[in-house]
Amino acid sequence: MTPNQTLVNEGKDMTHSRRALGCLLLAGLLVGTSPGSMAIANAGSQDQSLGIQSTVSLPSHAQGNPPPWSGKAFRQGVVAVANPYAAEAGAQILEDGGNAVDAAVAIAYALNVVEPQSAGIGGGGFMMIHLAETGETVAIDSRERAPAGATPDMFVGVPNPSLQGVAVGVPGMVRGTEMALERYGNLSLTRTLQPAIKLADAGFAATPRYSEASCSSRARNSPETEAYFCPGGVPPAVGSLVQNKPLAETFRLIATNGADCFYVYMPEKGCDIAKGIVEGQRFNRPQAPNGKGGSMTFADLENYQATLRTPVESTYRGYKIRAMSSPSSGGLTVTQMLKMLERLPIGDESQGFGFGSTKTVNVMVDAMRLAFADRSVWMGDSDFVPEPSRGLLHPDYVALRGAEIVPGARITPNPTPGDPRPFEDPDAEAGTLIPTAEPVTGPGETTTHFSVIDKWGNLVSYTNTIESGHGIGVFAGYRGTAASFRNFGFLLNNELTDFNLTPTVNPYTGGPGFNDVQPGKRPRSSMTPTLILTPDGKPLVAFGSPGGSTIINSVFNVALNLIDHKMTIQDAIDAPRVSVTSAASSVSLENGFPQGTVDGLRGLGYTVSTGADIGSVQAVVVDPKTGKQYGGADSRREGTVIGLPRPRSS
């Protein structure tokens, strides 16, 4: 049986066991999701409103019953989003004639309103687009850039730099969404902004996740954000009305004047957003000594441009894998891990490689350790450094690295980075590893991801972020007369702490670290929007995850679940995950693994922590034979699937 035949076997009974489910539709790619989603976004909901009329009442599937869209096929489009309101915004755009790109843009702006701690126009991301008509997959890079005044040592001696203006990169989302619509959309930026404007202006009912995050220390880092997110030291009650009228006005300015209104200071047009960004990133955390603001100027904003990228492409057991390329490390790292395990019979229970077994988790962990060792020194913004992307995935290099993985044993001592340069260029000579300190980057534990398919078969996998929860905890804005504050309602990112926080040395070249700060450079990212396609290039699934560096491992886990363990899309998302984000042998496991696996890993010498919360995968799926569409979302957040057409009311 070919890999594609395995993925498209049709299932007959959705109540079968997990083993039977593994043989369902697209190797399980076809079942949808999320115990945590809200009633507004049920596939069968008739409430198509946004704003204060929406409800946060939990539907039955949130109490342990199957989600209403699980296994349900659609024809007119599907959205899978980490928040119900944003899912509704995307679904409405699809219903109004928009394509997957239009819906993705609407979702991204809506998430700025309802999931502001994770993403928004103060940050950036990667939008991967698969075009049904041509079969081409492209990626729009709207990653933040370092300002012209940035230096490799700018974080040295700065306490908690991720909470200060020095961490703010030039935001890219607005330029990126503008590029996406101009090149691939059906609708205007003005039209796609309307759902987000309505949500910000009329308000929405606070969801449990919104309320839970609202009084974090980051949300309270400045007086304005504390007053908005945690008024009186108390988070908004679940179900209470949340409005952001300054953000609604900001969106209206962009809708009226285009992206230039965000990036160019034009007070004669009322476009003063750029002033709010420049002034806001000067925040030097006055409540702590030795604070440091950023160096961003109006010129840095004016000069920002989004970039069109070609995704990393590889194969795994016959399937094509396309994932985000530089400045993300995600595509290279995920595909390198997959290729290192391809020689092993993952999924074969008779050989001890069933899901969650000690042997399976053991080899997954060591693949992560090897790939993250390489990532630490060889991956960065390839516009600035000679990232050896072909060498890292060269079959001989992957075989050399993967040979260290021995089932039933732990790689010891911890793996060191390899040298892929001779596999990149046959004339290059291998270098000698010199002792260097391991690079240190800042936090990156939030972000959001969503996936969309439209009725024409176009797909979008979009990961968007402001880095840590609530970014630096500061709104874009500036002081006016009488100490008034002109607030633009969106948070500024702390993306530059994804660079190495101190200058480093590449242990093979002896030169500066590939992820050291440089003016205009984009910091290395872990965001990994991904597509799995048939051997002949027909799309099967678009997915991705938030979660800092664990994003890479969430995508890796789900890819193995789908391809090797033959799970349905919902099982693949719901299954417990394992993560290691360095060469060390400290393993994080979500709850749900057998105790025998935990004990087995410890017996091999790993340090194992349980109870982790790793990622939040949202996915859409298409059956290439029938054209039927499916969705899956993650209960680790408020994952929501809406499929079209919606059922008619009786």
TrEMBL record:
Top-level taxonomy = Bacteria, Bacillati, Actinomycetota, Actinomycetes, Micromonosporales
Please provide, alphabetically and separated by semicolons, the GO molecular function terms listed in this UniProt record: glutathione hydrolase activity; leukotriene C4 gamma-glutamyl transferase activity
Record text on subunit structure and interactions: This enzyme consists of two polypeptide chains, which are synthesized in precursor form from a single polypeptide.
- Extract the InterPro entries matched here: GGT_bact, GGT_lsub, GGT_peptidase, GGT_ssub_C, Ntn_hydrolases_N
Q: Where is this region: Disordered?
A: 408-429, 627-650
PTM annotation: Cleaved by autocatalysis into a large and a small subunit.
Q: Where would you find the membrane-spanning parts of this chain?
A: none
Does Acyltransferase show up as a keyword for this record? yes
Q: Which SUPFAM superfamilies match?
A: N-terminal nucleophile aminohydrolases (Ntn hydrolases)
- What Gene3D superfamilies does its record include? 1.10.246.130, 3.60.20.40
Family, similarity comment: Belongs to the gamma-glutamyltransferase family.
Q: What is its EC number?
A: 2.3.2.2, 3.4.19.13
Provide the protein name: Glutathione hydrolase proenzyme
Please give the catalytic activity noted in the UniProt record. an S-substituted glutathione + H2O = an S-substituted L-cysteinylglycine + L-glutamate; glutathione + H2O = L-cysteinylglycine + L-glutamate; an N-terminal (5-L-glutamyl)-[peptide] + an alpha-amino acid = 5-L-glutamyl amino acid + an N-terminal L-alpha-aminoacyl-[peptide]
Residues reported in the UniProt entry to bind L-glutamate: 143, 498, 525-526, 548
